[in-house]
Design goal:
It is built from 2 helices and 10 strands. By secondary structure, the protein is α+β, with helices and mostly antiparallel strands. β5 and β6 form a beta hairpin. The longest helix has 12 residues. It is elongated and about 55 Å long. The termini are far apart.
């Protein structure tokens, strides 16, 4: 089986071809750097994503919302559970970049952190 991907490992955006046999990656072609090979293997066997969003802030004169993200990528099938877990969160100012807004989101072991001061 062949899978065609566009690499997002670097700005080159290489067109990748992944040859698979069952669930096993046999080869990756089209990449111009090592990151392409790593990305392709991970994307076809265990796809993950960084999730970004916003949460409400109270007690801030600057803003009513603060941007947040997962500290690292989470399994792609946990994205909706992650968004559901953070949609009703309100935090009290002050909020600093890197503050943990929600620990272990959706049972992934990954924290939601602030990406802006408020």
């Amino acid at each position: 089986m062949k899978r065609e991907l566009i690499c997002i490992g670097c700005p080159m955006g290489c067109p990748l071809t992944v040859e698979m046999e069952g669930n096993e990656v046999k080869s990756v072609t089209g990449n111009t750097c090592k990151r392409g090979d790593v990305y392709a293997r991970k994307e076809v066997t265990n796809p993950t994503r960084i999730v970004t969003s916003t949460v409400r802030v109270t007690g801030s004169a600057l803003t009513h919302m603060v941007s947040v993200k997962t500290r690292e990528d989470i399994p792609k099938d946990k994205i909706f559970a992650c968004v559901e877990a953070i949609k009703d969160i309100t935090v009290q100012a002050p909020v600093h970049i890197g503050d943990v807004i929600l620990a272990n989101v959706a049972g992934t072991g990954v924290d939601i952190i602030a990406t802006k001061n408020a």
